[in-house]
Write a structure and sequence with these properties.
2 domains, Rossmann fold, 4-stranded antiparallel beta sheet, ATP-binding, 14 strands, globular, ATP hydrolysis activity, Alpha-Beta Plaits, disordered C terminus, binds adenosine-5'-triphosphate
Length: 296
């Protein structure tokens, strides 16, 4: 069953296009990534989906219900973390969370303490004494405290240190294992790769691809630099999947798409001084796979 169905959603801000004709579905139990560079329309899509802003055209359904008409009812079962969080500065964290919990028809106290413990959040502090990262944690606890069926997170990891990001991802995996569906936006591909089953890729307001992470990884090329201890014949680089070679006898820069083991096995036959392997970043993937003139 689709938990989220987005159909031809368009949002214009006056003359500016926020998003255009965005369509994708998120199935029950999925961790779905929504990825694209800054300003590509991730927040606009999410905010339109949640009826925080209204679409210019198109529609969305959540839990099979129209997202505008049934907005209030649907929100009982959604946890949402906005990309930027604003709070009443003078409030204590625990009072703020109790206030958030009061909107839901269930007792959330136990879960608030559990989440604060996992995220190492001090509930007794005042909001204005918290760092940016700790404010983000408040937003995370706020989003998860009612154990929602659908969790929507807009750039959730900005401000969290790497260890805390890991803790947070574990927490999300656990909630997902218990049945929650998750939609998570990010501009960092590696982050989405670690967590998600499928991704929608958005660029300049349009969804350019919806892919299983595995398929995306198979399409991804690596950027490789080789340095040999002695001059080598360029022919050794005639390997399936190698392209864009630049070669000076002892050094080569190239792109490789395929199983890295096959490549390394060939290179191990030669006297290598060094090898550097880079993962392309998101922009690079767009350039290589989603533009005309793509080589494969
Ligand atoms: N309130 C607004 N008024 C006018 N234009 C807006 C408004 N909000 C967003 N936009 C424009 O819509 C486009 C999409 O912005 P959006 O914030 O949805 O992107 P994003 O992918 O979430 O980016 P980021 O990661 O930087 O938050 C951008 O061109 C942005 O300038």
């Amino acid at each position: 069953m689709s938990i989220i169905e987005i159909e031809n959603l368009t949002k214009r801000y006056g003359r500016n296009i926020g998003i255009e004709d965005v369509s994708f579905q998120v199935e029950e139990g999925e961790i779905f990534g929504f990825i694209g560079p800054n300003g590509s329309g991730k927040s606009t899509t999410i905010r339109t989906l949640l009826s925080i802003i209204y679409p210019t055209s198109g529609k969305a359904r959540i839990f099979g219900k129209d997202s505008v008409r049934y907005a209030a009812e649907i929100k009982q079962d959604i946890g949402y973390l906005p990309s930027e969080v604003f709070y009443y500065e003078n409030m204590k964290v625990k009072d703020l969370l109790a206030y958030s919990a009061s909107f839901y028809r269930k007792d959330c106290r136990k879960r608030i303490y559990e989440l604060a413990d996992i995220m190492q959040l001090d509930l007794t502090k005042r909001i204005n004494d918290l760092s940016f990262g700790n404010r983000k944690k408040v937003g995370i606890v706020q989003a998860l405290l009612h154990e929602p069926k659908l969790i929507i997170l807009d750039e959730p990891t900005s401000g969290l240190d790497p260890l805390m990001q890991q803790t947070f991802f574990q927490l999300l995996k656990e909630d997902n294992r218990k049945g929650a569906t998750i939609l998570l936006s990010s501009h960092i591909l590696s982050e989405v790769e670690r967590l998600c089953d499928r991704v929608a890729i958005i660029k300049e307001g349009k969804v350019v691809a919806v892919e299983h992470i595995k398929a995306l990884q198979e399409k991804k090329h690596k950027i490789i630099r080789l340095e040999f201890n002695e001059p080598i014949d360029e022919k050794i680089l005639m390997i399936d999947g190698v392209y864009n070679v630049s070669w000076d006898g002892v050094k080569a820069d190239l792109c490789y798409r395929g199983d890295i083991n096959s490549f390394i096995k060939v290179m191990a036959l030669y006297n290598l001084r060094n090898i550097w392997i880079h993962e392309p970043d998101l922009e690079d993937i767009f350039l290589h796979y989603y533009q005309k003139g793509d080589e494969g």
